[in-house]
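Reminder to self: tokens first, then the designed residues, so the page reads top to bottom the way the pipeline ran.
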């Protein structure tokens, strides 16, 4: 068994987290956070570790009908929650991916990756960042929300191999540019 393989949290834990996020989202509009990223109409976006979809729905509205939002999570309940929200909102530009890390997306196909409050729980952070680098376009943006982890730790993890460099920072929201080439081991 691969010791670096991530596993979903128990269903009860996911349900409790989703309940907390619904309350949080009433007080802190996820769309306001996304405005600091600079998402544009027509872009292709990956919300890695999308959870119950707090950022998926506003992102789908921002990219519009010509854009696509991929909502990836390791937990089947997350995928189900996002699909229900998309249907309820009448959004057809959302595609879900059930995976622990591998996106299955083509090379250089993503404009923006959201990694919100996820990097701290991923076991093999380097492998994750390499996968995100692979799927991002040359001018792609990686947006990390550093909740429950020090900003300094996020900077060290993300810039270590030269795959990404910090573009701008808004408190705990860090936006990174994709490096031009992947570093080898």
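Designed residues (185 positions):
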């Amino acid at each position: 068994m691969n010791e670096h393989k991530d596993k979903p949290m128990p269903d009860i834990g996911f349900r409790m987290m989703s309940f907390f996020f619904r309350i949080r989202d009433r007080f802190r509009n996820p769309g306001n956070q996304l405005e600091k990223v600079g998402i544009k109409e027509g872009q292709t976006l990956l919300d890695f570790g999308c959870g119950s979809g707090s950022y998926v729905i506003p992102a789908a509205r921002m990219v519009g009908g010509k854009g696509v939002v991929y909502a990836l999570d390791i937990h089947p309940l997350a995928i189900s929650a996002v699909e229900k929200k998309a249907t309820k909102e009448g959004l057809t530009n959302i595609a879900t991916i059930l995976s622990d890390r591998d996106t299955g997306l083509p090379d250089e196909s993503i404009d923006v990756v959201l990694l919100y409050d996820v990097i701290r729980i991923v076991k093999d952070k380097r492998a994750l960042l390499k996968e995100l680098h692979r799927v991002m376009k040359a001018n792609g943006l990686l947006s990390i929300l550093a909740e429950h982890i020090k900003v300094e730790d996020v900077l060290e993890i993300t810039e270590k191999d030269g795959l990404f460099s910090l573009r701008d920072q808004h408190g705990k929201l860090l936006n990174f540019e994709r490096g031009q080439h992947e570093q080898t081991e």
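The CA atoms of residues 27 and 114 lie 20 Å apart.
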